[in-house]
Structure formats: structure tokens, C-alpha cells
Structure prediction request, 479 residues.
Amino acid sequence: MPRIFIFVGLILLLCLLLPPAIIARVRSTPNSNLPIHIIQDMAFQSKYKTQAVNPMFADGNTMRPPVTNAVARGETYLDAHLYDGVIDGQWANVLPSQIKMDFATLRRGQERFNIYCSVCHGISGGGNGIVNQRAMELVANTNGPVNGTVWVQAKNLVHDELVTVQPMGQVFNTITYGIRNMAGYGSQVPTEDRWAIAAYVKALQRSQIAQPSDVPAGTKVADHISPSPATTAVHNVASKGATIPASNSLTNPATSMLEGKL
Amino acid sequence: MSRFLFPRWSNAFLPLVILLGAIAPLYVGLFVAYGFSPKTLEAGYMPTQPVPYSHAVHAGKLGMDCRYCHTSVEKASFAAVPATQTCMNCHTQIHRESPKLEKVRSSYETGMPIEWVKVHKLADYAYFNHSAHVVRGVGCVECHGRIDQMTVVYRVAPLSMGWCLECHRNPTDRIRPPSMVTQMAWDQNKEMTQAQRVELQNLNNIHPNDNCSTCHR
Prediction:
């Protein structure tokens, strides 16, 4: 048999290995040419969905902001206590009537604090969250601040006396509108959650000056909750030192101790 | 005209041809099954984004919670990509003059949104809802993979109907306590026993639908 047939045959066989190799590669590495949607049907319809680009508007955005001076129902913002934390020109020291002070509110506040505030102020409010640490490093860089970074140390919310004396309404106002170098969170966090955070900040502050006598006689702090197996599992992880914020430890001393105490 | 005769040595091809004929359907079958599967054609999509924003830095190294930026994920069907204002909470100060943040700053000044490229795109005839999953304890990691380790986001899941149904028919091993949904490193299959997972499912009464009208409405 002529050699050439054997060569050609072998080369053809090798070519058969090519498609599997390509498939294996596409499946194993992220790729910017995908996705390929073979059967289109009505998979991608010519309609504008949430956050889509829209050439019809000057800002290119499908989602429209409300018309200037339009007021949506329930958004009159006339209630100075609820929206600004102010009663008769003074900082409010109680929650507005729309929000109940209970364990659920504090829990919610704890969870939201850990999401929005702990990055800078730290889980315990001490002012040394990871972003704060990193920003201080960037400023302290030996060749001058990296990319012009400037940073003011995030406030220690639980020990700085200028902060601990602030009424709840003032904390709420700071969260809503921001203060000096801190941005406001009014657009990211709904009103109820901002009050819950403010209440939790007060709870955190209170927990720093708690005495054994604050605990009702005969109760152990952990008695408040009987954990289900799932939460026990969560605790096991937390105690192993994994990176789990305290929102998940149901027996966080601050909230347990202060249940019903504010 | 003389007849063409195959030379004698060509007989050696006969078994080869039969063998190839037998293997060919298998080959083509596997080629179609693997090559045309959504896992090949749709998963792994990694578009280039206008700003070199990294989840590995923000969600991984800095430990930011997903909800700091994707604020609507627990309340709405849509997990919004954050507004420029959210970035500027920090970047008015941190890396204030970084060339990588040029587009973020100009977006902030002009009010024109940053045109992030959408990575996950479900077919328009299918209905999906984030809050229905996140509130019930399906972690982001189940569907989006280890976002906290990705420098550039890519699509881990095929987002095919089979993929949705696989979980809807057997969710026990893929749900976690709702407080853990954004903990990317946490794995319920390591941290909880089978019995605990079943108990969690019963406790929260989790029974995803597989009626057509759940997702095609």
C-alpha cells in the first residue's frame, strides 16, 4: 500500500481529535465570544428590560427618573422625625411611631450594619473595618499616597465620646445624608432599615458599658435562643474562625443583652 | 475502455471503513451532545467590562457583602448592578486619581451611566426572580459560582431549563440558612449533615415548583 494513504489516514484521524479538544477548551475556560444561542425562538425580544441601554433618552437609560417636582405616594417627606430624625428642631431620641423597638428591629439593624457599615467601621463599630485599614495603608504608602488617595479614619462609633453622646436621630441623619467625609446611605438603604441601623448602633454603644447587673437575675445570656441544628452548624463555623460576620451568630452579646433594654 | 480495478492492498481498508462507520454515529452523537450543550455554548461567558472592576478585590479581599452594591437582590426579581454613586461612596477618596477609575469619575460628573456589559441573560420568555431564591436560602454561589474569586465576572451556569429544573426537583443539598446566602466560602454540604439539611428544608417549607407556569408566565 502506498505510504501516502497511511499518512493521510493518520492525519484525518488526528483531525477528528480537534473538535473534542476545542469543546474541552471552550468548556473549561471563560471566553468572551460566548454565548451562542442556537435556537433563537423568542429568546431575545426587542423590548427594553430593567437597566437596559436605551438610545431614545439622552442619558441612555431605559429606567426613567421621576419627573422633576413629582411626588410619589407615601414620599412626601413631611414627617421630619421619620425622614430626618428631628422632632421640633431637636434630635429625636426615640424611634418614629412607624417602627417598633423590638428584638426583630435590632436584629435587622445588626444585619444591615454588617452589610453597609462594617466595611469601614468594623463589625464591632470600633472604626477599623477592612476598607478603612486598606485605605490607611494606601495613604501611608512610602512613595506618597497611591493614586492620590486621601482618607479620614472612620469614626469609632462605640468609644468616641463625640459619637456615643449622639441621640438616635442624629445617627439616623448621618446615615441618611452622610457627614463630612462619609457618604450618605439614603439611596442605598430604605428608611426603616436606616432606623434599625441607628437603633443597633445605640445598642452596640450600650453593650460597651454593660454591667453584669444588666442581665435579668437568673438568666444566662445564651438562654434567649434555642438554636436549631442549622444555626448550631452556623455557630460551629463561626467559632472555627471562618470569615463569617456576626450577623449570623444569633447570640451576639450586644443584641442578646440589650433585648428590650432600650 | 478498461475497467478500473481496486488494487489488492485496498482490501485492508474494508475493516477500517466498517469500524469507522460504526464509530461515526457515536462520534457525531457525542459531538452534538457536548458541543451543542448550553454548558459549552452559554456557560463561561466573560465579556470585557468598561471599567476593570474586580469582585476578587471588593467582595473577596475587602470582604464586602454582595448586598452593599446589589441592593435590590432580596426585594426584587432583579439584582441591580449598582449606580455610580455607590462606587463614589469610597472612590471620591480611595484611588481618587486612578486611571482605572476614569470612566467612573466621568460618569459621576456627567450623570451618564457606566455601560456595564450584561453577563447573565436569561431567555426573555422565562421568568426568574432573585428574591424568591435569596430569601428562601439559595446562596448566590449556587448559581453564580465563586464570584468573590473572580477578577472579571463570568457565567458559571448554563442557565438552561434543565439546569433550573435539576435544582427545583431536588433542592435539599442546595439550600442554606437564609442568613448565609452571601457567604461565598460557606458550603452547606460540608457544614451541615444530610439530616440537618432535610430539617432546614422542612423548617422553611421549601418546595420549588416545576410547573411550566412557574417560569413561563
Observations:
- The radius of gyration of chain A is 28 Å.
